[in-house]
Amino acid sequence: MSSEIRRGTDRLVQREPGRLTQHSFAFGAAYDPDNLRFGPMVCHDDHLLATGTGFDTHRHSGLVIVTYVVSGALSHTGPDGTARVEAGSVAVLRTGDGVEHSELAAAPQTRFVQVWLTDDEPPETPSYAVVPGAEVDAVAAVDALPGARLTVLRLADGATGTIPAAPLTHVYVARGALLRSSMAEPLHEGDAFRFTGEPAHEVTAGVDSVLLVWSFGHPA
């Protein structure tokens, strides 16, 4: 069993015109052999975009790409056309054996957190689906791969929530802050827990907060 805290202030920052990106894992020339992945998660990026900026058409294969829009709105264009992903929504792109797509900000101050998961058995045909914010609030969990689940945990100021036990758990503070606990000093927006073989943990919000909780290795 182990727990690790990754502070947002330690993330790799990349700046481009109209875009600020913070990388959780080794990226490009910033190679770190001790920080290449966490289970099937090989990318965990936090992007802030100005309207109309983002990522023009590019190609992916062998991945499941999961995007949570924190603020603003994201315009996604792929083989099936264009979809608008509003704040609070989750989008899941299964790239299959190859797909081209683009992602551009459709509103000012668009911020989204995106995770790439390696898919050992990708479907032949790519797919794209959006879970609207209202359904995320109601259903809470999105299954991305067998044994890989994202739970959007929303906590009001002072409320306590449970991080479920799993072989691997990644907890990201997308909004707000967590109070000091037996595990750590306070966690702030952009900070993360990485748990390996840990039991369930309770966390308490210091302000209204949104946690993105990835569980890996739970029964499918």
Descriptive notes:
This protein is mainly beta and 220 residues long. The protein is 3% helix and 56% strand. The strands form five sheets. A seven-stranded antiparallel β-sheet has the order 2-3-4-11-6-9-12. A six-stranded antiparallel β-sheet has the order 1-19-16-21-14-13. A four-stranded antiparallel β-sheet has the order 5-10-7-8, with no helix packed on it. Strand 7 (73-78) and strand 8 (81-86) form a beta hairpin. The chain is globular. This is Pirin family protein. Residues 14-117 form the Pirin N-terminal domain. Pfam families: Pirin. It comes from Nocardioides plantarum.
Task: Set down the secondary structure blueprint.
Blueprint: E1 2-6, E2 12-16, E3 19-23, E4 41-49, E5 54-60, E6 63-71, E7 73-78, E8 81-86, E9 90-94, E10 99-105, E11 110-118, E12 127-131, H1 133-139, E13 141-145, E14 148-155, E15 160-163, E16 168-175, E17 177-178, E18 187-188, E19 192-196, E20 201-204, E21 209-216
Antiparallel strand pairs: 1-19, 2-3, 3-4, 4-11, 5-10, 6-9, 6-11, 7-8, 7-10, 9-12, 13-14, 14-21, 15-20, 16-19, 16-21, 17-18
